[in-house]
Amino acid sequence: LRVFYYLLIFVPPMVLSGLFLGMAAISALVTLGKRANELTYVIVYALLPFTTAYYPLEVLPAWAQTVSRFLPFVHILQAMREYVLRGINPVWGIAIGLFLSLGYGAIGLYLFSRAFQRSRVKGLARLSD
């Protein structure tokens, strides 16, 4: 039952956080076509060390910690780590992560709508290259 509680608290914010990466990837695909597929993987794998999925934030160098603080995953994962290991209330970390996710989601939605409009003008047939 406790594991279900963890999932109920932490999975929805993580899914929402992943949406901005997905929207950015789709925007790149709509703008650049299939050639951008590899680019999206490179960007995601380049961000992965900064997400603190494998280790705590304190392990990173100072410059990487600064970069990491702009990613919503970091705050949610740190809140999850603190809650599971020390029993600290995760609401603050989840709130910061959700706030960043909503901000990046709005930017991602705007970029996607611009990319889609541009693609409609140029034609969608070029995306099948």
Give an overview of the whole structure.
The protein is mostly helical. 75% of the residues lie in helices and 0% in strands. It contains 5 helices and no strands. It has helices at residues 2-32, 36-47, 62-68, 72-86, 91-122. Helix 1 (2-32) runs parallel beside helix 5 (91-122) and helix 4 (72-86) packs antiparallel against helix 5. It is elongated and about 55 Å long. The model has no long low-confidence stretch (mean pLDDT 83).
Find the count of extended strands (DSSP E, 2+ residues): 0
Biggest sheet record: none
Query: How much of the residues is beta strand, in percent?
Result: under 5%
- Point out poorly predicted stretches: none
Q: From the alpha-carbon coordinates, what is the Rg to the nearest angstrom?
A: 17 Å
Structural class: mainly alpha
Helical coverage, percent range = over 70%
Tally of individual helices: 5
Distance from N terminus to C terminus (CA atoms, Å) equals 49 Å
* Helix-strand sequence: HHHHH
Topology:
Elements: H1 2-32, H2 36-47, H3 62-68, H4 72-86, H5 91-122
Which labels suit this protein?
mainly alpha
Please give a quick description of this structure.
The chain is an all-alpha fold and 129 residues long. It has helices spanning 2-32, 36-47, 62-68, 72-86, 91-122.
